[in-house]
């Protein structure tokens, strides 16, 4: 028993050290950003300023403005009060949102700098659209997406910097994360392809060196091979024409439903054919995090036992190919899952009901995504503790309330199917 207590103490201590380290790095980034900005080492080129100089930056708009409504989650087991406590951003995530018309810009004589390939125009202005989505007061958030060494490297002299003709970067500070790769990289390829169609020029894709298999597979399904890509070495490079597609989400969370539909259709149409006997999936899926770090379901065996009568089967996306992840979610009718990047795969679904399992804290990103796509969304939360540190506690493991889970699944299935499909609700 003493050894267990010591192990827990050690894990808590390591967690707090990680939080402290991240806070120090964040403070350092902000200080360097502010210092160099005050010294006029660079200016900020926002989305609005790109449009003000349309002739200079060759803005090509496409698609249409979108209005989406994010309603409250399914409240069958009265989890909304707990969700409001655990997700401080929930209030600002409910309501009507407008997503601006997408665009793609061509920046002449640009430069990419640092590990995140931050873009600068020929005057040395930092192009915010290469870093993050359009935000109110974006300068406040920019330091979060720009490594400190990038700004330092930008101000160092270049010696024989390599040069590219036409290129588009799929790198940003968060692109190593699976969810951000899908939302903040792949969705932007629609704009890149619009540019190619209009100009007959095919930009090279700049990606990280030694990308994980799922990145290579996802690009392949969209028609891009390694010959179309340039591995990024994390230094500086001149680009004659830097192609900058707009991010397909606005502010914190709302993601373009049209962009999601484009991505889903492209991926599904390019999936290789396989025999049905080779790979079949249950339409009711449980996403397990048993082999990942953080947010594991402590009583997962009990969860699976409770879900089994409803026809749920457990899957671990990290053990699947990207193509099979697309197949799995494209045929799903209901998914139960703890918070994790793999939930972004709901983009590949057609008509889905989602149950999200929260610990003591969380963020409402998948609530907003699910509602934007017109999906039914419910949730279960753990005990709320106002003293929890969000950046650490959100990775804590989850204890699921089994009776509440059974009731919520039954109610959401009944709400989805009505009298067409009886659901067992007694145990």
TrEMBL record:
Pfam families: Glyco_transf_61
Source organism, top-level taxon: Bacteria
GO molecular function, one term: glycosyltransferase activity
InterPro entries: Glyco_transf_61_cat (IPR049625)
Domain Glycosyltransferase 61 catalytic intervals: 178-351
Protein name in UniProt: Glycosyltransferase 61 catalytic domain-containing protein
Higher taxonomy: Bacteria, Bacillati, Cyanobacteriota, Cyanophyceae, Chroococcidiopsidales
């Amino acid at each position: 028993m003493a050894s267990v207590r010591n192990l827990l103490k050690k894990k808590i201590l390591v967690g707090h050290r990680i939080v402290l380290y991240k806070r120090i790095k964040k403070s350092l980034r902000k200080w360097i950003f502010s210092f160099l900005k005050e010294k006029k080492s660079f200016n900020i080129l926002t989305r609005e300023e790109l449009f003000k100089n349309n002739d200079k930056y060759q803005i090509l708009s496409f698609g249409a403005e979108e209005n989406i409504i994010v309603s409250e989650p399914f409240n069958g087991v009265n989890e909304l009060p707990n969700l409001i406590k655990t997700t401080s951003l929930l209030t600002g995530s409910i309501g009507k949102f407008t997503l601006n018309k997408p665009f793609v810009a061509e920046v002449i004589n640009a430069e990419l700098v640092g590990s995140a390939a931050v873009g600068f125009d020929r005057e040395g202005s930092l192009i915010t659209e290469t870093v993050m989505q359009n935000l109110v007061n974006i300068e406040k958030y920019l330091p979060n997406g720009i490594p400190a060494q990038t700004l330092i490297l930008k101000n160092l002299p270049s010696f024989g910097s390599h040069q590219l003709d036409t290129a588009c970067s799929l790198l940003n500070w968060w692109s190593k994360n699976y969810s951000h790769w899908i939302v903040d990289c792949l969705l932007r390829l629609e704009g890149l392809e619009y540019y190619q169609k209009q100009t007959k020029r095919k930009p090279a894709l700049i990606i990280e060196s030694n990308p994980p298999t799922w990145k290579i597979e996802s690009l392949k399904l969209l028609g891009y091979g390694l010959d179309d890509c340039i591995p990024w070495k994390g230094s500086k490079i001149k680009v004659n024409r830097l192609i900058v597609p707009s991010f397909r989400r606005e502010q914190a969370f709302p993601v373009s439903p049209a962009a999601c539909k484009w991505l889903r259709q492209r991926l599904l149409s390019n999936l290789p054919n396989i025999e049905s006997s080779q790979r079949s999936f249950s339409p009711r899926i449980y996403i397990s995090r048993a082999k990942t770090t953080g947010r594991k379901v402590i009583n997962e065996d009990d969860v699976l036992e409770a879900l089994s009568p409803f026809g749920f089967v457990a899957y671990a996306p990290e053990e699947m190919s990207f193509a099979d992840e697309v197949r799995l979610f494209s045929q799903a009718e209901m998914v139960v899952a703890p918070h994790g990047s793999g939930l972004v795969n709901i983009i590949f679904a057609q008509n889905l009901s989602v149950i999200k399992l929260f610990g003591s804290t969380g963020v409402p990103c998948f609530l907003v995504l699910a509602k934007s796509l017109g999906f039914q969304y419910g949730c279960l939360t753990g005990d709320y503790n106002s003293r929890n540190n969000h950046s650490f506690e959100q990775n804590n493991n989850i204890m699921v309330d089994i009776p509440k889970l059974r009731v919520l699944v039954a109610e959401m299935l009944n709400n989805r199917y009505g009298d067409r499909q009886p659901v067992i609700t007694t145990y």
